[in-house]
Amino acid sequence: MITNINSISKLQLYFFIIQSQIGIGLLALPNVVQGTAKGDGWISTLIAGMAVQITLIIYWLLLKKYPNAIYTEITKKILGKYVGKFCNVFIYLYFIMIGGLACALFIRSITLWLLPLTPMWVLSLIIILSSIYLTISDLRIISRFFVLASVLIILLFLLSFFTFYIPKEFRFILPVGHSGVKNILLGSHKSLLSMLGFESLLLIFPFVLDSEKEILKTMSFANFSVTIFYTFFTFLCLISFSPTQLMQIREPVLYLFKVLSFEMLDRLDLIFLSVWIVPMTTSVINYLFLSAKSISNEKTYKKNVFISGILIFIITILPFDEDQLVLFDKYVTYLSYVVVFGLPLILFCLSFLISKTERSEQL
User: E strand or H helix at 89, and its extent?
Assistant: First the structure.
């Protein structure tokens, strides 16, 4: 049952979506888009943001037809009890897999940059336990933490202005559009995957205390903020590193700060990553919450949080080498297109047909 106790405000919705989208994907995004879009990678992130916005509008049109039902209830109403339950299990597995992938990439970055001697399972256990501790609370508590954590994103944005001490070469992005439409769209595909997390709207929509129009405005502004944030850092890396350097540097955003040194402040890359741990953890919390919420009622929610946390922990301690992790990322990518984009679109089309049929029968 949805009550004022477990509901959130539109401000909390704004920061919830931002924290869900911004995470580990930012660090490597300029390197990822460089492989296809090259100097036009910043255009790719803008197009990806537009694609997210179109998807959010489809979500909104679907969810407002069932204002008091969460997404997993809508699937059963439209597809029927058994097919709907099957889809919900599929959705649950998706959230577990992408949560495990996000956590595994998170741990690898910490191991590479901060704690090379600490066993990966120890880092995973600390992250999962802290995530479970917060996730077993209600949605309002999680949202409040996300609002507080967003202050760090503003801090990191301000910290990025120190990188303007590095010489910039705007010729690396000129002429605009030289990569071609095909390569820019391929870069958008890769940027889109870094922006995942907005699908959290599917499960938190009925808990937002505001009108449907205000919710649309809020989620659109949140997506706009994330798009500008990603585009800014991509653009910054594109004009700071040569194309050859970007292809060789796995996490260009961190290298932006590594070359900086001041008398009273050194190794800004480690400061950045230390602070960035919080936004990366919020991504894990988000997927842990979504996975448990997709198969739970009020009585089973806490138990399912622990089960989901154990499954994500198991994924993170599997002995993946780099090739296997890339392959796992590829499979999760395919699954993302089905769950995040394909299924909601199918449900929206079916709901439209159902509404049209019901109106015809009434006439």
Answer: helix 81-113
Q: Determine the Cα–Cα distance for residues 348 and 62; give it in Å rounded to an integer.
A: 5
- The answer to the question of residue 1 being in a domain is no
Q: Considering only CA atoms, which of 184, 266, 207 is closest in space to residue 10?
A: 207
Beta bridge partners of 8: 208
Length of the chain: 363
CATH number at residue 301: 1.20.1740.10
The pLDDT assigned to 217 comes to 94
Q: Compute the distance between CA of residue 286 and CA of residue 291 in angstroms, rounded to an integer.
A: 9
Coil, helix or strand at residue 207: helix
Q: Is the CB of residue 46 less than 8 Å from the CB of residue 178?
A: no
What phi and psi values does residue 22 have, to the nearest 5 degrees? -85, 125
* DSSP assignment letter at 69: S
| Helices 268-294 and 301-317: angle between axes, nearest 10 degrees | 130
E strand residue ranges, the chain: none
- Asked, for residue 2, whether it belongs to a domain, the answer is no
Q: Under a CB-based contact definition with an 8 Å cutoff, are residues 30 and 252 in contact?
A: yes
Residue 300 lies in a domain: yes
Tokens for 335, please give them. 């699954």
Model pTM score: 0.91
Q: Give the pair of three-digit tokens for residue 132.
A: 């479970």
d(CA 266, CA 263): 7
d(CA 179, CA 184): 7
Number of domains in the chain: 1
Query: Across the 363 residues of the chain, what is the mean pLDDT of every consecutive 10-residue run?
Result: 70 92 84 88 92 94 88 90 90 93 90 89 93 90 91 83 83 87 88 88 90 92 94 92 87 81 70 82 92 86 93 91 85 89 92 73 56
Tokens of 93: 């597995």
In a domain, 186, yes or no: yes
